[in-house]
Every structure is written in structure tokens, then in C-alpha cells.
Design a protein that fits this description.
Pfam families: MDD_C (PF18376), MVD-like_N (PF22700)
Bound molecules: ligand DP6
Oligomer: single chain
Enzyme class: lyase
Distance between the termini: 34 Å
Strand content: 15-25%
Shape: globular
GO cellular component, one term: cytosol
Radius of gyration: 21 Å
Protein name: Diphosphomevalonate decarboxylase
Helix content: 25-40%
Strand order of the largest sheet: 8-7-9-6-1-16
Largest sheet: 6 strands, mixed
Family: Belongs to the diphosphomevalonate decarboxylase family.
């Protein structure tokens, strides 16, 4: 009789929001980028994917993945690449130590849950692939470091490679054709600059229009601005950003963050036909951040936008009243302010028309902060009989 034992391991993994943006692939199959990038990992208390990976001879015959209770297609090249790479590391481990159970070829059953809306432009694929790779690496008891695992997670979704670390993370683009040097490294742990806060204005919880995967492909092939961004703008941003993080210099961090977002969206506009991720609500968010900074006489708040209209606003804890408090004053009544004890402040310095656009267009706010990388957990989403745990 074959061994019907169920092996399993679980993890949670965070979302990250880039402050130097990844946009463009030099190799779409391996997800090798045209430029390096930097992100801030956000706290898993507010945004995370929880994943259990299990394998057993009693499963299958196919590998399977359940996300928020709905079955996902795992036959895509990206998921397959992650499974293949992790299995090959496990196979090598089993070959080097004959006492290890032979589990590399057993069917995988993966169960995942997000504590936030999937594909709302909240970097769910980053947390999702980071959790998938970390959970299977735990299941296979691989000795691989987060940087080694980042090479695998990158093949699932580029930005996922940065979610294997907490704090401030760089994805070094690398030069090799096989992607062996296109890896994530930690610039600084969360504890180095723990006062970093993020306020997310959720503009729409609907699925986004042009996916980042196809959007960046069209940008690479049609935008004339793009080459300059990849070759000149980003290398400069990378140097400035890493220095700003090391020195905990918010002035510089904020300026580079905003310029980077603007530069990325400029190349989207320069894509032919153009791609519009920012909408009127996004532009109103930019306006109120400018008003907040003008009042402070320096940069205390920094906006950034990914492939969708949601605004992520970074600020330091000491400026909670002047940033989150003032926005609460303007957008009081929205869901999400209760999560942290934000006191509503006078918002009369904000442009009244921009405030009205935000009131009409923002569905909720998420208050969060810089946070830790993937965390192993004993809380399993698969029961002893191998069935998904009902929540
Ligand atoms: C705008 O990582 O989602 O959020 O590699 O095709 O899965 P794929 O793309 P993805 O792109 C993220 C783009 C971005 C910027 C960033 O996170 O750096």
C-alpha cells in the first residue's frame, strides 16, 4: 500500500507597494525586468495572503489551488514554473539524504485566503505568489534563503519576489539571460525605519482594466519615453531611494516616491494607444497631498499609484495628525478610519473641489504601516483529512 500520509505547512505573506516602480520586462517568460525596483512591505495585520500547501498520494491526480474558496487554474506557465522549480529543489534534497520522505512528485493541494479584495489593484498577486512559494518551500523543508526563493516567486509575478522580505526591499534587475541574478534583497528591515505609515484610498474594489502584465508589454513595445525611464530615470531613482531609506530621510523618500509614480504613469500615457490607470479621483488625491505638503512647508506625505486608481499615501508616524487626521477630517464617515485611532483634524486647507471628488469616489480607507516578511504559521487551511477548512 502506498503511503497516504498528508504532509502540510502554512505561511502568511505580505503585500508590497513599490516606491521605485517595476514596469517592463526584458524576458516575459522568466519575468526579467527592464529596471530594478524598490518597495515597502506592508503590515500583514491589514493586508496578507494566508496559504497552506499540502501534498499526499491520496490527492490529485492533478495539482490544485483554491483561492478564497474558488478553484484556480494552475496550468498557467507562471504557476507551473513555481511548482517545477520548488519540486526540483526538493528532488535534489531527497537525493542528498535518503532518510527524507519522497514527496517531491506527490500532487500538491494549495489553499489560500486573502484578507482584502483580490485584483483590486492592491498587489494581491505579489502576496499570493510569495505565500505560495514560501508555503511549498516550508512543506518541502527547503533550506533556501528568501533571496533564493525570490528567484522562484519572480516567475510567478515579478513584484512577488519583493514580498519574501519585510521592511524595505530592492529587486535587482540582474544581467544574466537565465535570470539567476534577478533577485530581491532587503535594503533595511522594518525595525530600521518602523515609523513609516501607509494610508490607502480604495477608489474601486472592482477588477482593474488593463492588467500590469499586458500593460507593461505594450509600453515596452510602443513608448518612446520608456527607454529613457529604464536607462536614465530609474537608475538615478534607485540610488536616491536606497540612500533615503538608509538615512531615514522622508524628504527625499517622498520626492522620489512621487516622481517615480509620475514617471511610470507618464510612460503609460506615452504608450500607444495610451493606458490610463489614474482617474479623476486619483488626481484629486494628488492634489490634497500637495495641499498637505504645502501647509507643512515640506514633504510629509507621498502618493504613489500602481496599475489602478487606488492611492497609497506614505507618511511618518509623527505626522499622523497632519496627514491621516486631516484626510479623516475631509473624508469622515468612510469605512476604515476606526482601525487605528486617527483623530479627525481641520481640513479647510484642502482644495474643496478635490475633497468633493474624493468623497464621491473613495469607497474605503486602509490604514497600515511597514511590516514583516512571510511568517510561518501553524494555523492550517487544510484539515487532517486533506479537506479545505471551512471558515
Ligand atoms: C505597477 O508584478 O503585477 O505594481 O510580473 O506581470 O505579474 P507581472 O506584473 P506585476 O507588476 C507590478 C507593477 C506595478 C509596479 C511594481 O509593483 O513595482
Amino acid at each position: 500500500m502506498t503511503d497516504q500520509k498528508i504532509y502540510q505547512a502554512s505561511t502568511t505573506a505580505p503585500v508590497n507597494i513599490a516606491v521605485v516602480k517595476y514596469w517592463g520586462k526584458r524576458d516575459p517568460k522568466l519575468n526579467l525586468p527592464t529596471n530594478s525596483s524598490v518597495s515597502v512591505t506592508l503590515s500583514q495585520a491589514d493586508l496578507r495572503t494566508h496559504t497552506t500547501a499540502a501534498c499526499s498520494a491520496s490527492f490529485g491526480p492533478e495539482d490544485s489551488l483554491l483561492l478564497n474558496s474558488s478553484p484556480q487554474d494552475v496550468s498557467g506557465a507562471r504557476t507551473q514554473a513555481c511548482f517545477r522549480e520548488l519540486r526540483s529543489l526538493r528532488t535534489a534534497l531527497e537525493a542528498s539524504d535518503s532518510s527524507l520522505p519522497k514527496i517531491a512528485t506527490l500532487p500538491l493541494r494549495i489553499v489560500s485566503e486573502n484578507n482584502f479584495p483580490t485584483a483590486a489593484g492592491l498587489a494581491s498577486s505579489a502576496a499570493g505568489f510569495a505565500a505560495l512559494v514560501r508555503a511549498i518551500a516550508n512543506l518541502y523543508e527547503l533550506p533556501a534563503s528568501p533571496t533564493e526563493l525570490s528567484r522562484i516567486a519572480r516567475q510567478g509575478s515579478g513584484s512577488a519576489c519583493r514580498s519574501l522580505f519585510g521592511g524595505y526591499v530592492a529587486w535587482q534587475m540582474g544581467e544574466k539571460d537565465d535570470g539567476a541574478d534577478s533577485l530581491a534583497v532587503q535594503v533595511a528591515p522594518a525595525s530600521h525605519w518602523p515609523t513609516m505609515r501607509a494610508l490607502i484610498l480604495v477608489v474601486s474594489a472592482e477588477k482593474k482594466g488593463v492588467s500590469s502584465t499586458s500593460g507593461m508589454q505594450i509600453t515596452v513595445s510602443t513608448s518612446k519615453l520608456f527607454k529613457r525611464r529604464a536607462e536614465i530615470v530609474v537608475p538615478e531613482s534607485m540610488l536616491l531611494m536606497e540612500k533615503a531609506i538608509k538615512k531615514k530621510d522622508f524628504q527625499s523618500f517622498g520626492e522620489v516616491t512621487m516622481r517615480e509614480s509620475n514617471s511610470f504613469h507618464a510612460t503609460c500615457l506615452d504608450t500607444f494607444p495610451p493606458i490610463f490607470y489614474l482617474n479623476d479621483v486619483s488626481r484629486a488625491a494628488i492634489r490634497v497631498v500637495e495641499d498637505i505638503n504645502k501647509k507643512a512647508g515640506k514633504i510629509i506625505a507621498a502618493y504613489t499609484f500602481d496599475a489602478g486608481p487606488n492611492a497609497v499615501i506614505y507618511y511618518e508616524e509623527e505626522n499622523t495628525d497632519a496627514v491621516a487626521g486631516v484626510l479623516n477630517g475631509a473624508l469622515n464617515g468612510l469605512d476604515g478610519w476606526q482601525a487605528r485611532d486617527i483623530k479627525s483634524q481641520d481640513s479647510s486647507d484642502l482644495d474643496a473641489r478635490a475633497v468633493q471628488v474624493l468623497k464621491d469616489g473613495v469607497s474605503r480607507v486602509i490604514l497600515t504601516s511597514v511590516g514583516e516578511g512571510p511568517i510561518r504559521t501553524e494555523e492550517s487551511l487544510i484539515d487532517a483529512a486533506g479537506a479545505p477548512v471551512k471558515k
